[in-house]
Amino acid sequence: MNDAIKHGETEVNGVRLHYAEQGEGPLVLLLHGFPESWYSWRHQFGPLAEAGYRVVAPDQRGYARSAQPERVDAYTLLHLVGDVTALIGALGEERAVVVGHDWGAPVAWTTAALRPDLVRGVAGLSVPPLPVGGPPPLESLRATYGEGFYQVYFQEPGKADAELAADVRTSLRRILSGRQPDGVPRPWIVPEGKGLLNSLPEPERLPDWLTEEDLDVFTADYATHGANAFTGGLNWYRNLDRSAELLAAFSGVTVEVPALFVVGEQDLVNAMVPPPVLEHLLGRLPRLHRHVRLPETGHWTQQERPAEVTEALLDFLAHLDK
Asked: CA–CA separation, 262 vs 218, rounded Å?
């Protein structure tokens, strides 16, 4: 087995995707979130490959080294699921275990729900299995959190794009370093009349899990798209309502394949998903293997706690039928 991470490209659904790959064996797809790239899984490649798996982490549609379709409506959840299903075939495989973090988690959960014939197992980090379809969420998010809630703030085309792309490295540093000083998770809300980064103070130092060299890689990947560095990822948020409408026919579907859920106790998602709601959502996983809660862990799960996440993934993978 070649120990080095290899890079490749393939076209799926008319979109060129870059991906990183290591190892041989059953396919494990690792799907990143916002604002990340394949590199957010850097700690998982080696251990999973050594355990006998083919590990592939794409830059998803619109991100980093992958192509960025111009149309805003080209980023619905159905497009993203379609990319995953097509990627499995493009890699010469028939099935895969799909693992997602942050935005990658809804993609993973929805792929498993809609295409269980292609998914041997599914793992979600940070974001639980939200209902497929259902009412468009933006009105509810506005009513609950206001216009400053980040997912609402992202809706205006060009606004957040320009703020984040003005200094890519600073934006990534502030977002990835963000954590409440008291450890209590709170929603990301932009103060009225302020810019996006005003809600994210400049860190005195990088967190222990993030190095300047890590930031170099993320920054270089995002700089691929220049002034549109973050536009592809932001367009995912701009399709929240559209995705719910398109998936209405699948409302109520559950995830019937084996599943794993991992979340940090200080993850901001916990502020939006209280325990009773989480328990209800996990009820959509009749074959849930484990629900892992990591203490003193924020939103960037697999980067903050690489050993614990890798251990949970290896345990899950070992319980799946080859």
From this structure: 24
Containing 145, the helix (H) or strand (E) segment is helix 138-145
Over 50: is that where the pLDDT of 2 sits? no
DSSP string, 231-270: HHHHHHHTTHHHHHHHTGGGTT----S-EEEEEETT-THH
Which of 64, 107, 65 is closest to 86 using CA atoms? Answer: 107
Q: What Å distances lie between residue 310 and 44, 161, 217, CA to CA? A: 6, 33, 21
Integer Cα distance of 283 and 223 in angstroms: 41
**58, 88 in Cβ contact below 8 A?**
no
Looking at residue 134, what is its pLDDT?
A: 80
Catalytic residue among 102, 161, 221, 267, which? 102
pLDDT in tens, 262-282: 999 999 998 899 999 999 999
Residue 293 in contact with residue 125, Cβ under 8 Å? Answer: no
Least Cα distance to 262 among 222, 229, 305 occurs for 305
Does the model's pTM come out above 0.90? yes
Catalytic residue among 79, 101, 225, 299: 299
311: pLDDT strictly greater than 60: yes
Retrieve residue 132's tokens: 């497929």
∠ Cα 276 240 226 (to 5°) = 125
Mean pLDDT score, 23-45: 98
Q: Please list, in sequence order, all residues whose beta carbon lies within 8 angstroms of the beta carbon of residue 272, skipping any fewer than 6 positions away.
A: 187
Cα 231 from chain centroid (whole Å): 16
Compute the distance between CA of residue 182 and CA of residue 296 in angstroms, rounded to an integer: 11
Q: Is 299 a catalytic residue?
A: yes
Average pLDDT of the residues in 298-319: 97
Phi, psi of 123 (to 5 degrees): -130, 135
pLDDT, tens digit, for every residue of 41-93? 999 999 999 999 999 999 999 999 999 999 999 999 999 999 999 999 999 99
